[in-house]
Write a structure and sequence with these properties.
The protein is α/β, with parallel strands linked by helices. The chain has 3 domains: 82 residues, Beta-grasp domain (Ubiquitin-like (UB roll), Roll); 91 residues, Beta Barrel (Elongation Factor Tu (Ef-tu), domain 3); 121 residues, Rossmann fold. The protein contains 7 helices and 16 strands. The strands form 3 sheets. Strands 9-8-11-6-7-10 form a 6-stranded antiparallel β-sheet. Helix 4 links the parallel strand 12 and strand 13. The longest helix has 14 residues. The two termini are 29 Å apart.
């Protein structure tokens, strides 16, 4: 078992155990969130040793050079000496400017911005003394909106969403980290035709990307297809109708996600019927892992090049 030295304590990782779980098992309080290497809440500082490459795969070159590791992605195979990485200088506090319930299960929060951001990036929210964060994508456009807009899906037994839904009030301060991510509008990709594919609150970053694309090139043809288990109650319909009034060329639809072995069959069937070829399209896909993988494969088979398909996978926090 690899030996870990953390704050002068000697620990041992169990076979197959990652560094985050090892630290938590030994009683060390380490902030964390997604456990998938995306939110970067669980960073630790390498002092000595050779970490596995996966522990730094999604970090920036400067983070790797500084010796940072994602503890949730690090399964040590040799001895490591690490120390705590302080998020103190990375955490920002903003006040809640607006709280609007868009549906029974989706909340819109608008926060006072701090510094630059791009629509489609995400931030990690921290509440009170909670040791875990949760990631939420930005729906607002920096050049147009004086706020950070987030769409919060309610998970009744979730870690943060019930607090945001029921206890958070306008004027409250919320701590957050970011922005993070590269799922943003790309003007180096084809601009005449854009396809946006969203599952549930995956609409949030795509709304911002859609607006930024239309502000950059008002003649762009955009089709936005949303997939939801209850299309008639989809929270985004009114938001999309408002946007279509401003940009009549925007086309959108909401397709049902079914509860069977092929929940996205209706979506893939609709894509085949609507598009004979996606060769000259930019495609942006956001939703759960299975949704993204299914639609990414379908778009590629329809002619979209891999470099013209941008994806963002939401993490499942419904039971966390």
């Amino acid at each position: 078992m690899p030996r870990i030295v953390f704050e002068e304590n000697r620990l041992h990782c169990e076979p197959g155990e990652n560094l985050l779980d090892c630290l938590l098992r030994h009683g060390h309080s380490i902030p964390y969130g997604c456990r998938a290497g995306a939110c970067q809440s669980c960073l630790v500082q390498l002092e000595q040793g050779q970490p596995p490459s996966q522990a730094q795969a999604s970090l920036t070159p400067s983070q790797r050079q500084d010796g940072l590791l994602l503890s949730c992605q690090c399964q040590p195979d040799t001895a490591l000496t690490i120390s705590r990485y302080s998020l103190k200088n990375k955490i920002i506090t903003s006040s809640v400017l607006e709280k609007t319930q868009l549906s029974e299960t989706v909340l819109r929060l608008r926060l006072r911005p701090q510094g630059p951001w791009r629509a489609g990036q995400y931030i990690n929210l921290w509440l009170n003394e909670k040791s875990q964060s949760r990631c939420y994508s930005i729906a607002s456009v920096a050049s147009e909106d004086p706020f950070l807009e987030l769409h919060i899906g309610l998970h009744p037994h979730g870690y943060l969403s019930p607090t945001l839904f029921y206890d958070c009030m306008v004027g409250d301060n919320i701590a957050w980290q970011g922005p993070i991510g590269e799922f943003v509008y790309r003007d180096d990709l084809p601009q005449d035709n854009i396809l946006l594919l969203a599952e549930g609150t995956g609409l949030a970053p795509l709304l911002g990307i859609c607006r930024e694309a239309l502000l950059t090139n008002p003649s762009t043809n955009i089709e936005l297809l949303c997939t939801d288990s209850k299309p008639s109650e989809y929270y985004g319909t009114d938001l999309l109708m408002q946007l279509k009034k401003q940009y009549p060329q925007l086309a959108f639809g909401v397709i049902e996600k079914t509860k069977n072995a092929e929940p996205y069959r209706a979506t893939t069937t609709s894509l085949k019927a609507r598009f004979s070829s996606l060769r000259d399209y930019s495609v942006y896909i956001c939703g759960g892992p299975k949704y993204v993988e299914t639609l990414q494969r379908q778009c590629f088979m329809a002619g979209a090049t891999r470099s013209n398909i941008l994806i963002e996978k939401f993490l499942d926090f419904s039971s966390a």
